[in-house]
Amino acid sequence: MSNPAPTKSLPFEIVLPPDSTLPPGHFFCDGRELLIADHLALFAVLGPTHGGNGVTTFALPDRRKEEQDLAGSRYAICVTAPSTADGQIPNTGQTPLRNGHLEGALAIWHSLSPRVGLAAFNFAPAGFVSCDGTHLEVEKYPDLFGLLGARFGGDGVSTFATPDLSALREFTATLPIISTEANNDQDVLGVIRNAGGCGNLAAYHRCDGTLLDITANTALYALLGHAYVVAPLAMPPVAAEPNPPWWKKWLGAKPQVTRQTVQSTFALPDLHALEALSGERYLICISGFFPSRTST
pTM of the prediction? Predict the structure, then answer.
């Protein structure tokens, strides 16, 4: 029994209807080229990743080979932005993200994977800049400009802008960041990526709020502290002085007691709510390069 056709897709989500019927507001993933001017929001998400010259044209993903064994089903991409109705494609010059939609932020984040991540700490480390719409100099960040162009702002000659992914902070105290370098396959301690954007998976842990031992993870604890969950304080038992001197016994003096609070664990971010919205799994690097605050 086939599943019913989707009644509502997330903006720019790729779906697989049970037959060859194209849902409203979708295009088949057939690699066709489109004019950027006609589909600004969609180009802001896909860029020239799948084809086109990146100046006047871009292409949709091509899933036709994968469809050969699907008994007539065809992949389709939702091209309706969140702010539109009745299947009309916007041409406002603004991405869904700039209209404040979290779904648009997620679509852009995943389209730029693995270049984009979330810093579980509160600064953009060396080799990264914040995804806050800030304008940057093309000359200073040529690799990043080659990826983004002027899709998110700037004149495209001397300046360009990063995407504003601040909507992702709705779920947890994380900072959206993007790598400024083309060779960005390093695993950076405390950086969160979707599962497809991780390098060495053995260096990552799911963002599920797990408590980790401070002693065994001192570097990660130095970055995260108790920003996510404050672990309960443990009060160690106080042992009585085994053999107090005779004069203490004669005076009836009580042994001096120094109580110390012991914080033995700290928590990872919990992104279950974000996973439920996006359908992705998010992992945090717990064994990698320690991020430097030195500016790039």
Answer: 0.57
